[in-house]
Sequence to fold (445 residues):
Amino acid sequence: MSHGGGAEGGPAALLRRVVDVREGEVRALLLSSAFFFCVLFSYFLIKPVRETMGLRGGVDELSWLYLGTLGATLAATPLYTLLVRRLAPGRFIPWVYRFFIVNLVGFYLLDRVVSDGELARKILGYSFFVWLSVFNLFAVAVYRSFMADLFTNEQGKRLFGFIGVGGTVGAMLGSWASGRLIQLPLVGLGELMLVSAALLEVGVWVFLALLRGSPSGERVRAVDTAQAPGLGLGGAFRAFSLVGRSPYMLGICLFMLCFTVTSTLVYFTKMDAVARATDSETRRLWIFSNINLITQTLTLVTQLFFTGRIIRSVGVGATLAIIPVVTLAGFVALAVAPALGVVIALESVRSAANYALTRPAREVLFTVLTVEEKYKAKALIDTFVYRGGDVVGALAQRMFVAASVPLAGVAGFVAALALGWTGLAIALGRRQRDLAAPAASAGPG
Fold:
């Protein structure tokens, strides 16, 4: 990537104190960070709306929404892949985000129309729950794909951390704004959707400014065409084949399943605790927004001061093992004191550990794979396996409820799972190190 320079004194010199940005990169760095800021601000502003509307039918109905989310994700993935392959980023990305903007305006109008009908409000809430889950998956995937194409591998190592902090700040402000705006007299769930839509449109304009400043558009398009993570029917079969014959990738799949199953159990525990705490949608949204704010604040602090140090100091395997240990400790605490505050602490610490530690370490696992494995198998793991784990967790939750299993029993199940999960994390870290050793010993060139 080579970007036009311009004056880069003053603020640029100050920026170089916190990130290794070089001549000609400042504009692209700041606009990329601002783009991610807008996307996550928009999402986290309405994420509490999703949780609040999802509770309209009670906690027991949430498991069916997970099935709906899996179905919607599988249906949308081939269309997404087709668009990536056929359209240049300059057209495709604005279209994707503006499609989501139109959706948000439509949900706002429907919210106004069905405000008095209980059944209609429930159906609208369920639809929005599934829609936002798909939005989160693809809106962030679009962003990450473009960043991977815009910047070289060497630039990514230097700049992606700073860009990620921009996204985390957007998530923090979105979480904070959601809880504060909902308390204003004329603001309801629908109005938050409109504000989110406006922020997405700002993000589109930032993206267009970024694209205009990049003379690498032809190279970006070439990379997209050659390496798009095709998960159409043929691509999916190929991805299953790649994963099925690799014990290493099967281990990554199993790690992801452990994570998503336990994430779903934590999520249901949180939703049940909030539902029991209050019947007010405004109050529920305020609680959800503050949970997100605590999570993103912890994430930002960890990203700034601990992520790189921890991964370098203890290695990939031990870093991956942090999340099962946190999950185990949290459920033990819940079994002893099943209070809303403990639920909030578990959700916040666990999510922050995932965003700031587990996710970066998990990405390192893919660095030793071939290009085809990275794009096809990784896409399968990030969509089908991820959402499939959600469904398994939701079905497990229904079984626990049907069998009247107490929270202590659920904690025992999670404890057994976490022990095996921890061992798997250590084994994956060792295997990644072994696979990376030949390339490291060969050196550059």
